[in-house]
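We give the entry.
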Amino acid sequence: RKEMRKLFKNLRKKDYLLILICAVIIFSEVWLELKMPDYMSNITVLVQTEGSKMSEILKNGGYMLLCAFGSLVGAVITSYILTYVSTTFSKNIRKKVFTKTMDLATAEVKNFSVSSLITRTTNDVSQIELVLSMGLSLLIKAPMTAGWAILKILNKSWQWSALTAVCVLVLLTTIGIITSIVLPRFSLVQKLIDKVNRVTRENLTGIRVVRAFNAEDFQEDKFQKENDDLTNTQLFNQKCFAVMEPVMQMVMYTLTLGIYFIGANLINNSIMADKLTLFGDMVVFSTYAMQIIMSFIMLSMIFMMLPRANVSATRINEVLDEKLTVNEGLFNGDTKETGTVEFKNVSFKYPDADEYLLKNISFKAEKGQTIAFIGSTGSGKSTLINLVPRFYDASDGEVLIDGVNVKDYTFESLHNKLGYVSQKAVMFDGTVKYNVSYGKSNKKITKEKVEEALKIAQGYDFVSKMDKGIDSHIASGGTNVSGGQKQRLSIARAIAKDPEIYIFDDSFSALDYKTDSVLRKALKENVKDATTLIVAQRIGTILNADKIVVLDNGNVVGIGTHKQLLKNCDVYKEIAYSQLSRKELENA
């Protein structure tokens, strides 16, 4: 249980103290429960003895009631404390897993699927919580009860003790066999839950495509297969565990009958003076024997929970132990330069790749300049631009922002300088205002600033026509707005932040040519002091850029203005003539 122990190191000192208090209370519970058979034995003797007073019988009965009530109160207190400890622990672990996931670089996230990360944050943490809330109590109580009860019956008949030992051995053998069969399948169960989550998420996020291609039946069959695999695995596990209950019942009833059968023979063969003592011992022994069997039944419940919880602990630790490849720097001070971006001999390859995707890239963007990147699909444009916000780190060379290596910045100070618009517009559940003013910024984003950003991004017209204007609701993923509207809201989000440097990763592709042109003109007029980096597929989007970087298979094959590249760069010329006519290009 190495993984479980490792995970439980996240418990607070306060939690350990509470668990210790629970152990003391459970000790008291066990003492009270094991004291009751003694009073029962006294009552049995009193009933069989002539001249016994009713008050003595009632007195012993009262003690039994007090023991039962005390045990009940202890159980309630223990349950409350362990529930508090387990829920607090699961809350902290969920937070740690979520925080670690947020710290993972793009390359590291690929080591886990999104559906798997969701399962690890929810279902796997719940398995650990169950072990803490219920399993911990059983783990303390079962051995304590079994050990104490065995001590209580040691001085009784060896025949009864031998029978009890055989019954316990049968029980342990059954538990061992079932656990060895089921244990390997617990890991499979969690992976199958990942798959069910993946298919469900895939279907929900791609619902429009599924319907457009009449693929509902295909998706249902796909889900059915994963669901059947999970169900069948779970059924197999539960069928194995279902064997335990009849075995336990058979062991308990066999033990009870055996004790009375042996007891009857012992009483029958004893002298009259010992008959009453043997009868009392038989009643007490049968009660203690049941306590021992119940203890091992409780342990069997733990054996059912622990294997799956251990698998979950392993999966959680895999996330928490994932080594970060993009580490935060310490610099958050003032810089001599403002709004500059420089690549110095930058090369990049993915961690699992053999060849470099980007090779020896060098250029510099000065404050207020617009630098565009263009090239064929797969040439490395988006990867290059993603090195600036450190979604990946350069394998060789340096990326400098305001003269400082991006690796030296704290994440907050680096991202405060950037206004990033992703290739795929991302919308969060909330209002238009919430989405545009999203995140943390050096400057307060007011209602006026949101409206101004929407006007520059050419989004104010359609937002003003919504029922509540900027307070209108945007669904998660932006499913209640069009692709072009999402793109404009995404651009407005970056503008509202008023950064030093704008990064547009093919962010104008969902816009029509007119909106694209008007938006770029508005950007040039309103954010002229900011540096702009644009990845684009359209020549029309980057015609007026101060500098255009042309990429081909990860190499820079040309840097210059539009007119310079038309004369000197064959790759640019080929892309340009494939989109616009010679006359349009010459008059641009």
Notes: The two ends are 70 Å apart (CA to CA).
